[in-house]
Amino acid sequence: MSEQTNQMVCKVTNMPSFTKLTLATLISILTSSISYESSAGELSGQVQFETRVFTQEADFGQSDSNFSIAFEPEYYHQFDDSDWSFDFKPFYRWDSEDEERTHADIRELMFTYVGDVWEVKAGIGKVFWGVAESQHLVDVINQTDFVENIDGEDKLGQPMLRFSTEQEWGLFEFYLLPYFRERTFAGEDGRLRFPLAIDVDNPIYESDDEEHNLDAAIRWSRSIGDWEIGLAHFSGTSREPQFVLDTSNPLSPTLRPLYQTIDQTSLDVQATINAWLWKLEAISRSGFGNDRYWAAVGGLEYSFYDIKESGIDLGIILEYQTDSRELIAGGFQTQDSIVSGFRLALNDEQSTEALFGFSYSEEGQKFLNLEASRRIGNSWKIILEARYFTGFDDNNPTESIFYPFRNDDYIGISLEKYF
């Protein structure tokens, strides 16, 4: 391994040892491939420069702003005269304030074989399931990279073996997941953190095999006319932790993540009927307590296309979230919520887009979210993100899972360079 590669690897922190070793090996392979076989592969990716400005004083003296840089290259190689391909996508972010947000990950490291009947994927990858806009209940394969963003859209790479086949009766997928990825959390100097420090170095597992528990999932999906239907079952370690208070050091108590073993059966349905999108995600899950519980999110989206021949599209979103439990992870009360919003696409040369969402719970908590983006030239994009939390009762801090973030309203601006 070259001295330059060693220097790159030494800068990677806050990663499991298996990830460090794999990343070191793949960086070496990648640099060799680029140097000697550049014509056989494709190198692309992006660099992001991000700043966040928080509008309220932090609970624990954290900074009112932060700056970060993220780098996510991708190397794709299609082997000559072969049904095999290789995709490698590492990720690294440096954050000026939060050492936990300074982190690295392998988003994808995947060998793919495409045969006449079966497709096989082996390595580290990302899988997305779901149709709803406000919440992805059925999306259970990958762990959330919570330190990246609290919206649950950013995921850690998951070691997996995937078999799939597409027939007249639909697409069938089978997953073996041999290693569990723990959720990331903001550190003591970061914003959007919990009141007590999360002890990510000492998680608790229900399974005796801990992170090496072999998880498995199956999924069937099919398009039938205007309908898209998916049925899935997952058995293994929950990606959604609960927390156990650790008072072994009374002067500095912490929260230890507890990862329980679950069985989850899910359904996702989407119907596209003219300008209407009808969406539903529903799950039935065991493992959190003695009884199974169910949860669902469903709603609609109606689009106005080419408004007054301007080329502008406007989508109106309305969804409802519900959960049969009285308490959810962390001891917070469950709440039914209504989510409304709009999706705007100018369809201009710069691909200007905006998404606004407003969530209102039965107890009166409100969460507002705005995401907008616009391309600059051929290879740059500017992104605006704003989040606002309100309506919380300081006398009842467990009434909402968003209570710890009540003073973390922020405006974020990102500038991304694609290559």
Can you put this structure into words, describing what you see?
By secondary structure, the chain is mainly beta. The chain starts with a helix and ends with a strand. Helix content is 7%, strand content 52%. Strand 18 (327-328) and strand 19 form a beta hairpin. The chain is built from 2 helices and 24 strands. The chain folds into 2 domains: 1-36, no CATH class; 37-418, Porin, CATH 2.40.160.10. The strands form 3 sheets. The chain has an 18-stranded antiparallel beta barrel. Strands 8, 9, 12 and 13 form a 4-stranded mixed sheet that branches. It has helices at 3-10, 17-36, and strands spanning 41-54, 65-78, 84-95, 103-114, 118-125, 158-167, 170-177, 197-198, 204-205, 215-224, 227-237, 242-246, 254-259, 261-273, 276-287, 289-304, 313-323, 327-328, 332-333, 337-345, 353-361, 366-376, 380-390, 410-418. It is globular, with a radius of gyration of 22 Å. Helix 1 runs antiparallel to helix 2.
Q: Gyration radius, to the nearest Å?
A: 22 Å
Structural class by secondary-structure content: mainly beta
- Named CATH topology of the largest domain: Porin
Report, as a whole number of angstroms, the end-to-end distance.
Answer: 26 Å
The CATH level-2 architecture of the largest domain is identified as: Beta Barrel
Shape: globular
Please, how many helices?
Answer: 2
Number of domains: 2
What is the fourth-level CATH superfamily of the largest domain? Porin
